[in-house]
Amino acid sequence: MLLLLAMALFGLGLVGVIVRRNLLVMLMCMELMLNGVNLSLVTFAQQTGTAAGAVLVFLTFVVAAAEIAIAIPIVLVLVHQRRTLDADAYTDLNG
Amino acid sequence: MVATLNALLADLDTALLFIFALSAFVGAALMLVLRHPMQVAMALISTMVFLGGIYGLLGVHFIAAFQVLIYVSAVMVFMVYVIMLLDVRDVSFKRRFSQWLVPGVAGGVLLVGALGYGLWFGVDRIATTTVSFGLAQFAAAFLSEYWFQFELTSVLLVAAVVAALAVIKGSRRRDRG
Amino acid sequence: MLLTLIVVLPLVGFFINGLLGNRFGKPFVTVVGCGLPIVAFILAVKSFLDLMAGGGTPIVETAFTWARIGERSFDIGFWFDRLSAVMVLIVTGVGSLIHVYSTGYMKEDKSFARFFAYLNLFLFFMLLLVLGRSLLVLFVGWEGVGLASYLLIGFWFEEPDNARAGKKAFITNRIGDAGFLLGMFLLFWATGTLEMDRINAAFMSATAPAVSASLVGILLFIGATGKSAQIPLHVWLPDAMAGPTPVSALIHAATMVTAGVYLVARMSGIYMHAEAASQVVTVIGVATAFFAATIAVVQNDIKKVLAYSTISQLGLMFVALGVGAYSVAIFHVYTHAFFKACLFLGAGSVIHALGGEQDIRRMGGLAQKIPVTFWTFVVATAAIAGIPPLAGFFSKDEILWFAFASERGGSPVLWAVASGTALLTAFYMFRLVWLTFLGKSRMTPEVEHHVHESPWSMTGVLAVLAAGSAVGGFLALPHFLEPLLPLPEIPEHLHHLETPLLVASIVIAFAGLAGAAYFFGDGAVRAARMRGRFPGLHRLLSGKYFIDELYEQLIGRPLVWISDRVFLRTGDRMLFDGTLHGLAGLARRTAGAFSRVQTGNLHLYAFLVIAGMAACLVWSFRHG
């Protein structure tokens, strides 16, 4: 059941990235995805009884923190230029 | 008496687990439909807290502590600050959903369905167990077997700090010049 | 060892002069360039003495094995018998003399070293040709002399006409070589070897090889027509006069053009059993001889007259070959080398004296001014006209006799045409003498002022060659070659006609002399009147029967049209370039179509992630 929850969290996070327009909301949905993965890791670690799963969870925390530390300044810089949080406004890398 | 209390507590654990799981799910679902980003952030924080509770119920207390410490108090607080900083009443406020709403939902259903299908025929269901990880074992494992990953994470954090500085300084120079 | 040395010495000269000549100056080049051929001549004499000491048994040397394919091996071997001896002595002897002449003629030229390098290269290939044991070595020499000829005709390549003449010579040769190669392939297939002595033995033996001797004979003869300038591949020789005069003398008179005659004589074993091929040889030979002689009568460039004369004389040699008198043909090669080289070098001396003038209508009255040149030229002219007792008389008379009487194709008609050619030969050669040397001077004043006798390096050679033309005929070559190349049989009832025909040929020679004196002696007035009476004929002859124009129309223009229309436009541009451009265009358009996925929209990308992941999961669950 917890694995079901983990799957659901991951799926909801990914769908959220697709359906929501606001950049910040998209970032938060990505955090949700990471949480789902964490949950599944903890579940498996508990099942097998090794320490590897827990270590990996800790590493995921660090990565999430680092990621958010970079992503938010990037969003700030982007918004500073174009004055909008709409993801559809940033389509320069096309073609 | 103690046995029934234990049995009751065991039942309580399971019930709490169920409640927490449901709540986490609801919070996540709400994230997708709420309009104001601040509301979305609150939903996420609730989901994360409930997840922390689940971790505690599962016996990995230090991970639960980390969850709250890192995710909620660091990441989400940062997020909330940024939401407060920016003006959120723009196009994405009026029209929440992108063009890819229907295909996205369909794809999500397909994905979760496939994963569930795989889960159904693969893994046994689990519940709470008595096996729990102590902080001591965790720390020992980190420093003996996984020390390399530990060092790598510190490198990663340094890289993140440098990158953040570079992004902000670069934008400031562009504004000035 | 000796034969290999004879062949290799000129090659060494080529490398030394070619690489170091310019650095060390003209005296060095002269010593190396003339010295090595002279040493080769001395070695050739020594080999000849060895040969005679051995009673004429051939000396064989194998230098090395070129290739071994299966059980067959192809060797570089040299073969020295009586025929080779004659050819080698002519090539090295006359060749050395012409090298010495060139030191005087090319003295002012800035590419002195290059000239001698090329001359030595030519000598190397020519010696390969005449000393080679197998057709393979001969062919290497054959192609090599073609190359040297191209290099030397186009020696002053800054003039595009000279380069074009060199190209024409080489390409015309190559056309003949196609026939030669086919003949070689057939011979190898039938007899299993390319060594000429073994091929001859195979054809002379009781069991003839399983190939038509006539077919092989005709194919080899096609190669000979290219090299020896017979109809239809004669067109390159007059144009080849664009090269320096020593080149014309050496290559296009004395040695290279006789390679075809040598080939047929060497492969006599085949031709003796090939009636049809021998007839073809005879017919083409006599036709070419007559045809070229008629053209020579109206030519106005001193070298062109001699060029057509060479073609005509070669035709007579082929007549001799065709009727089975192989040794007589070689005898004529020998005498022709002397008097033709003397004539060409004499012409070179005249051109040198006049500072570059080559048109005989602007000459005249040179006899007193350049006496040595004049007298040697007269001796050589008398030789070619067949006036006894000079060399040309002996060889030409033998040819005419066998043309009449040989059992292998001799006929009165043949004799008549050949005699007509002899008459014309005497006529135009003495015309040349009259217009060039005698009578009143028609030179422009500056040229007349410039006239001087050539240096002794040139006149000395002229004297030696004139002496050879005078007395060379007394060397009975056909008799010497008889053990190797037997003379054809003469029917009994014709034997008594030998003396009358001899007298007839002497009369013809003097008739030609008299005719020339009549028409050109008085300042060419009577000749001009004659020309006035037959303008059409004169135009036909002056235009060389318009053969070059005919080839251009029949072969040149269609080829260019095909190359342009079919190969260039359709084949190359449409097919190849079109395919390549089409493929490139296809790639570009496909890439353009695919790149429409990249819209820059993050939502699309995330959707593609989810869709792809779902698809992969579904697929992996289905396929285990």
List the helices and strands and how they pair.
The complex is a heterotrimer of chains A (95), B (177) and C (624).
Chain A: H1 2-19, H2 23-48, H3 52-82
Chain B: H1 2-33, H2 37-58, H3 61-85, H4 91-94, H5 101-120, H6 135-144, H7 147-176
Chain C: H1 2-53, E1 59-69, E2 72-80, H2 82-105, H3 112-131, H4 135-153, H5 160-191, H6 196-204, H7 213-227, H8 236-239, H9 245-254, H10 259-266, H11 268-271, H12 275-296, H13 302-322, H14 326-353, H15 371-385, H16 391-405, H17 412-437, H18 445-450, H19 456-471, H20 477-481, H21 498-520, H22 525-533, H23 535-542, H24 547-594, H25 602-622
Antiparallel strand pairs in C: 1-2
Please tell me about this protein's structure:
The complex is a heterotrimer of chains A (95), B (177) and C (624). Chain A is an all-alpha fold and 95 residues long. Chain A has one domain (2-93): Orthogonal Bundle (Helix Hairpins), CATH 1.10.287. Chain A has helices spanning 2-19, 23-48, 52-82. Chain A starts with a helix and ends in a 13-residue tail after the last helix. Chain B has 177 residues and is mainly α. Among the domains of chain B are: 1-88, Four Helix Bundle (Hemerythrin (Met), subunit A) (Up-down Bundle), CATH 1.20.120.1200; 145-177. Helices cover 81% and strands 0% of the residues of chain B. Chain B is built from seven helices and no strands. The longest helix of chain B is centred in the N-terminal third of the chain and has 32 residues, at 2-33. The termini of chain B are far apart. Chain C has helices spanning 2-53, 82-105, 112-131, 135-153, 160-191, 196-204, 213-227, 236-239, 245-254, 259-266, 268-271, 275-296, 302-322, 326-353, 371-385, 391-405, 412-437, 445-450, 456-471, 477-481, 498-520, 525-533, 535-542, 547-594, 602-622, and strands at residues 59-69, 72-80. Chain C has a two-stranded antiparallel sheet with strand order 1-2. In chain C, strand 1 (59-69) and strand 2 (72-80) form a beta hairpin. The chains are: A mainly alpha (95), B mainly alpha (177), C mainly alpha (624).
